[in-house]
Design goal:
Blueprint lengths: L1 E7 L8 E7 L6 E6 L4 E5 L20 E8 L4 E7 L6 E7 H7 L2 H17 L7 H9 L8 E4 L7 E9 L5 E11 L11 E3 L6 E5 L7 E8 H6 L5 H17 L10 E2 L3 E5 L7 E9 L10 E6 L11 E9 L2 E8 L6 E7 L8 H13 L13 E2 L3 E4 L14 E8 L11 E6 L10 E12 L8 E11 L6 E7 H4 L5 H12 L7 E2 L13 E3 L13 E8 L9 E6 L14
Antiparallel strand pairs: 1-2, 2-3, 3-4, 5-6, 6-8, 7-9, 9-10, 11-12, 12-15, 13-14, 13-16, 16-17, 18-19, 19-22, 20-21, 20-23, 23-24, 25-26, 26-29, 27-28, 27-30, 30-31
């Protein structure tokens, strides 16, 4: 054997080896690797692509990755990374120290990272191999863009910011660089919250924090909402408040421009409150990353009750209850008293008194801009009346097999409750099949210019009318591409899908009669999209459809076949490039 070369790798490497390239006369050249324990391995040189001599994770002395922490808050960290070799590519991230410690060592962590990268390859639709995936991650490499911004971290917690060199072949080119970082803890601020000038609908809340250098949120919430909607979870309340601040900031507002954010002494004047209602004043510190930096402080106050000025009461009786309608007879003890009715799902107002529900309803209506004109509003009545939940009261959310509570109370021309509140409990029956028939008429296919199309193309649409055989039942209507309709085994399955896709907004496409009152949408109907929400396609065949609805489909499906025709011959014009 003729010895060609020999290299001894330093004992600093975990398993030192001797490598010899050898050749025998008239034989195939081979590479012989001899370990310190005498074990040898022999490889045919023509089978070897390349040789790399390196330790498992020892740093390439020519590459150093600097980790520069630029911001640390209660639950966020911002970091930049700089390699002293501009040609070096690397990956970086953040891991909780406790999770890193479970892996045991830098070497184990890098092995874990390699496994993570391989698992990401398996879920990446554009990469079949690790090399392809890393080529994507590192292919558009710009050293100045290596920035880490992480939010939603744990407060008062140790994290490692890490980086390691790696090439597109998945070979580590450096060891692990890491820096221990500790997120800030929540600070304690005494906000000294006070409520003053309390009336039935207004109050002034103030804060005098013992920390004048920290921004803070100042707001309020009803105790009922805190207990029931947020289940008494202070973290959820804080996150909800932060969402409103972040929304304002996303529009370009700075913290000192947001009305609910203060520094030093703060004041908030509240209007439109509900009488006789318990509230919490809320305050918590906010840092520059718009995260809470202090514990939440809350303090109670309660608005005063409404002063009843009219001793009128109301005798309420159920005339009839249908799956989606309630008819109520109202008989006031004073024929001249102006009164208002509202209907609430009983489970939605659990925990509220009748007066609180009534006063909430008035506050809601008074919150419109412009507010309701109580001198002319058609929902204000006098004398004995039999009232329909939809036609007279505008309540379009009645559902079958549900318990509701009807509330009746006097209201002044200024929108203030004047009487005690009378109530009536009503349970709607379950929906049943209906004999109502529906006729689709006056169908026209047309088109209109698409305002979002630069080329001036048109959008096909249909106009049509519907004549129901009765005028006191809801029906749903829409348009479906015939090819989509044909995928369903029968009309029942299609109607169930149409109801499911409409979801909570189904009443937006439910109608009664042709033009019953100002609360009903009259024919003609018009649509430029199908029931799935896809824009109509010129030349495609569609069904205009309709069926009775009362929480479920109550009639068979009625449909009319029509082809979309926008009247164009291709539409618009195309520029000559």
């Amino acid at each position: 054997m003729k010895k060609l070369s020999s290299l001894f790798i330093s004992s600093a490497i975990s398993s030192a080896i001797i490598v010899s390239a050898a050749a025998q006369d008239n034989t195939t050249s081979t590479l012989v690797v001899t370990l310190k324990n005498g074990t040898t391995f022999e490889y045919v040189l023509s089978d070897i692509d390349h040789l790399t001599f390196r330790s498992d994770i020892s740093n390439d002395p020519s590459v150093n990755i600097a980790i520069n922490i630029t911001q640390i808050t209660v639950n966020s960290i911002k970091t930049t990374f700089t390699a002293d070799n501009s040609d070096a590519t690397f990956l970086f991230g953040l891991i909780e120290k406790a999770e890193f410690d479970k892996l045991g060592s830098d070497k184990a962590f890098l092995e874990h990272e390699l496994g993570r990268l391989n698992s990401e390859v398996a879920n990446d639709p554009w990469s079949n191999t690790l090399e392809e995936y890393l080529d994507f991650l590192l292919g558009w490499w710009d050293p100045a863009d290596q920035v880490l911004n992480r939010d939603n971290l744990k407060a008062d917690t140790d994290y490692y910011i890490y980086a390691y060199g790696i090439n597109t072949k998945g070979e580590f080119t450096t060891g692990l660089f890491k820096q221990l970082v500790h997120t800030a803890g929540l600070i304690d601020i005494a906000f000294n919250l006070q409520a003053s000038d309390i009336t039935s609908t207004t109050a002034t809340i103030t804060a005098g924090p013992d920390n004048d250098d920290t921004y803070y949120y100042l707001g309020f919430i009803t105790k009922n909402e805190f207990d029931n909607e947020f289940n008494g979870n202070e973290e959820h309340v804080v996150n909800n408040a932060l969402a409103t601040v972040r929304m304002a900031a996303s529009g370009g507002a700075t913290l000192d421009q947001i009305p609910t954010i203060h520094k030093g002494n703060g004041l908030l004047q509240l209007t439109g409150l509900t009488p006789d209602m318990e509230y919490y004043m809320l305050a918590f510190g906010i840092d520059e990353s718009i995260n809470a930096c202090s514990h939440l402080t809350k303090a109670e106050f309660k608005t005063t009750p409404v002063t009843v000025t009219d001793d009128c009461t109301f005798a309420l009786a159920t005339v009839s209850a249908e799956p989606m309608f309630i008819n109520v007879n109202v008989k006031p003890t004073d024929e001249s008293t102006r009164y208002f009715l509202t209907i609430k799902k009983t489970s939605d107002v659990a925990g509220l008194t009748a007066t609180q529900v009534a006063d909430n309803e008035l506050a809601f209506n008074n919150g419109f801009n412009p507010p309701v004109d109580w001198t002319t509003d058609p929902r204000v009545f006098t004398g004995e009346q039999t009232l329909n939940s939809r036609k007279n009261l505008g309540v379009t959310t009645i559902m079958p097999s549900t318990e509701y509570t009807v509330y009746a109370f006097g209201v002044s021309a200024e929108g203030v409750r004047t009487t005690i509140v009378s109530t009536l409990n009503v349970t709607t029956p379950s929906a049943t099949e209906s004999a109502m028939t529906l006729s689709i008429k006056d169908v026209t296919a047309g088109g209109e210019t698409d305002p979002n199309d630069w080329f001036g193309n048109t959008i096909p649409y249909f106009t049509y009318g519907i004549t129901p055989s009765v005028d006191n039942e809801y029906y749903y209507t829409g348009v479906v591409n015939k090819s989509d309709y044909d995928t369903f085994p029968d009309d029942k399955a299609f109607m169930a899908d149409a109801i499911a896709k409409a979801g909570d907004l189904i009443m937006m496409n439910c109608y009664m009669g042709e033009n019953n009152s100002f609360l009903s949408t009259p024919a003609l109907f018009k649509t430029t999209t199908d029931y799935i929400g896809n824009t109509l396609v010129n030349g495609d065949t569609y069904y205009i459809f309709t069926f009775g609805y009362a929480g479920i489909a109550t009639t068979p499906l009625f449909k009319y076949e029509v082809k979309a025709d926008d009247g164009s011959t291709g539409g618009g014009w195309w520029p000559e490039w």
